[in-house]
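Before relying on records like the one below, remember that each one covers exactly one chain. Contacts with other chains, cofactors or solvent are not represented anywhere in the record.
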Amino acid sequence: MRTDDLVGLLSTGITPVRRGAAARRFGISLPIAALGATALMATVFGLRPDLGVVVKTPIFWEKLTLPLCLAIGALLATVRLARPGAKVGAGWPVMTTPVLVVWIAAIMIVVTAAPKDRLPAILGHSWRSCPFNILLLAVPGFIAIFWAVKGLAPTSLRLAGAASGLLASSIATVAYCFHCPEMSPAFWSVWYMAGMLLPAALGAVLGHKFLRW
C-alpha cells in the first residue's frame, strides 16, 4: 500500500475538533469539580467551626495557596495534554514551585521544633483520613475532567490521565481546606500531597483505558 493510500485510509471518518471545544468542555467540567467537591465537603465533613477566625490569619491563605497553585499548573498541563502530541509545558514550574516552597517550610519547622514535637507536626490529628478524604472529594471532578479530556483527542494517555487526576484532586483540596483543622506546612507537605497524588496515580492507571479515542 502506498503512503498516500495509507494516510487516506487512516483519515477516513475523522472530523476535526470544533474551535473552542476545549474552553467549552473545561467550562463545564471545572465548575462540576469545584461545586461537587464543595458540596461533598459540606455534606460529609462540614465546615470547620472556627472558619470565621482562621480566614483572617495568613497561615490559612498560605495553606490554600498550595492546592490553588497546583490546580493552576495542573489545568495548564491538562489543557495542553488534551491535544494530540502536546507536552506539559508551562505547567511544570507552576506545579513544582509551591511544592518546593512547602517542603522547605516543612523542613524548617521540623528541624527547629523540639524532638517531641516533630512527629506531631507531621502527623497532626488527621493523617490517617486526610488523603482519603481528598480522594473522595475529587470523585466528581475526576469524572468530569476525564470526560473533557477524552473529547479533545489526547495522545499521551497516561500523562494526560495523571494531569487530569491532579487537577481534580487539587480542586478538591481547595474545598477540603475549609474543613481541615491542620495548620502546619509539615502536615500539608506530606498528607495533602498524598491526597492529591492518589487521584493523579489513579488517572495515570486509568488514562490508557478511558482516554482512548
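Residues 185-210 form the longest helix (26 residues).
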